[in-house]
């Protein structure tokens, strides 16, 4: 929701400012922010088919332009946070992560953890990264957030989405879709299995996040999906207050 | 020379485009580009005294703003290179380097070397980085370039400067200053020693580069200081053609 998805490279400055304020007023400690691509990274990644990996020299520029678009969005978000007094620090995933066939294998989060220890709020993002099998690919913010939480021993991941959490059906399409307040690891695995078997996402678009969150939940991280469109929800989530949302728990 | 030093955040777009063309027409292979801060990084780094390290919370925003200014300049340069057909890839030094009391000690250039192997031209820069002793500091492009060359076994470093090389005196002030065509490692060390003893730079502003280049020259890297203000010089240097310049050699 930090961009207008229908218009390329259009930031939703009002939403970014509101979320920056919510983060600031929550008084973040040991916080890491990860954002997605919205209308910055996605159109270019799609145009050049960056996620599939190298197939033509023309794509190399597309890889780089996708990263540059993400840098542009990241700068807007970092500067909004700085403007609200949050000691944000931009960290570029592609500058230190190489994936192996689209997945993070070995990674050294030393700069991220040092930034947190130094009092900064690192701000990372889904990015076009080098890949050992495909030359390059797309690393999603979801995969990155889950791995960061696991490796750095985070207590919690808060996924800000545009609905209240995981539903029994897509709440934007199905009127009697019900919010699921808590999902266990085995329920998560069941949903992912059904999704893979039927090639359909019964959760209202949350299957990717549920799938990526699996290893983090298994490692003891609590995962919360919250509606970041509703003013105050991100603030309340960061403060640990009770809100309408979905919890993923071991 | 890629910025107007007297006006904050003013890129010299004509110079950037010309240099991007010279790089493109030289047909770079195994090239890494490192640029400085010009009117982007320097004014903010100075205003917040970032190089000295942490002394107040206010500086943390200054650290981050300095990096963001460098990101902005880097984006302009990367996009100019892409525009001329060079497969440039931005790599942010502060995302993977932590200095120890202002110096790079351990560093893993895996992403940089993989980028080169994959056919990209990595573009790095002098940056505001985390530091284990001072919390943060400034890492100069000169220190970074020398270390990159040493660790990755580069054949050569080309320093683009605004004079023809190292002079017997500052050529902008002293009329009969003479260009020194070659300096040996022991001559370089002598100059650095004199500079430290007298707190004066007798080389026409090149002492920092000579000092940083020392370990690279010692490791067998040839270092060339060339006048990047003169059209064609960077192209000729990259092609290995004979030009008026200063060589630093073991």
How are the SSEs placed, and which strands pair?
The structure is a homodimer of 250-residue chains.
Chain A (H helix, E strand, L loop, with lengths): L12 H14 L6 E3 L2 H10 L9 H27 L4 E3 L7 E3 L2 E2 L5 H8 L3 E5 L1 E5 L3 E5 L1 H11 L4 E6 L20 E3 H14 L8 H12 L3 E6 L5 H6 L7 E4 L1
Helix pairs in contact in A: 1-3, 2-3, 5-7, 6-7
Model description:
Chain A has helices at about 15-25, 40-45, 55-85, 110-115, 140-150, 185-200, 205-220, 235-240; strands at about 35, 90, 100, 105, 120-125, 125-130, 135-140, 155-160, 180-185, 220-225, 245-250. In chain A, a hairpin with a 3-residue loop joins strand 6 (about 125-130) and strand 7. The two termini of chain A are about 30 Å apart. Chain A has 2 domains: about 1-155, Acetylglutamate kinase-like (Carbamate kinase), CATH 3.40.1160; about 155-250, 3-Layer(aba) Sandwich (Carbamate kinase). Chain A has a 4-stranded mixed sheet with strand order 4-3-6-7. In chain A, strands 8-10-11-9 form a 4-stranded mixed sheet. Chain A is globular, with a radius of gyration of 18 Å. In chain A, helix 1 crosses helix 3 (about 55-85) and helix 2 packs antiparallel against helix 3 (about 55-85). The first copy, chain A, is α/β, with parallel strands linked by helices.
Strand order of the largest sheet of chain A: 4-3-6-7
Number of strands of chain A: 11
The two chains with the largest interface, and their residue counts, are: A-B, 39 and 39 residues
- The topology string of helices and strands of chain A comes to HEHHEEEHEEEHEEHHEHE
């Amino acid at each position: 929701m930090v961009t207008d998805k229908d218009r390329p490279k259009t930031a939703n400055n009002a939403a970014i400012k509101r979320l920056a304020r919510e983060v600031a007023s929550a008084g973040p400690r040991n916080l890491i922010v990860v954002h997605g691509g919205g209308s910055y990274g996605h159109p270019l990644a799609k145009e050049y088919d960056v996620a599939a990996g190298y197939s033509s020299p023309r794509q190399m520029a597309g890889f780089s332009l996708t990263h540059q678009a993400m840098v542009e969005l990241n700068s807007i978000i970092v500067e909004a946070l700085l403007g609200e007094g949050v000691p944000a620090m931009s960290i570029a995933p592609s500058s230190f992560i190489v994936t192996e066939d689209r997945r993070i294998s070995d990674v050294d989060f030393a700069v991220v953890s040092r930034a947190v220890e130094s009092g900064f709020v690192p701000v990372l993002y889904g990015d076009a990264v080098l890949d050992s099998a495909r030359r390059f690919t797309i690393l999603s913010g979801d995969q990155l957030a889950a791995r960061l939480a696991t490796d750095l021993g985070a207590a919690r991941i808060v996924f800000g989405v545009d609905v209240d959490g995981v539903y029994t059906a897509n709440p934007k399409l199905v009127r009697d879709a019900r919010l699921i307040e808590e999902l266990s690891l085995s329920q998560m695995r069941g949903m992912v299995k059904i999704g893979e078997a039927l090639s359909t996402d019964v959760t209202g678009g949350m299957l990717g996040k549920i799938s990526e969150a699996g290893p983090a939940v298994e490692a003891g991280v609590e995962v919360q999906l919250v509606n970041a469109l509703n003013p105050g929800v991100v603030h309340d989530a960061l403060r640990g207050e009770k809100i309408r949302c979905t919890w993923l728990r071991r």
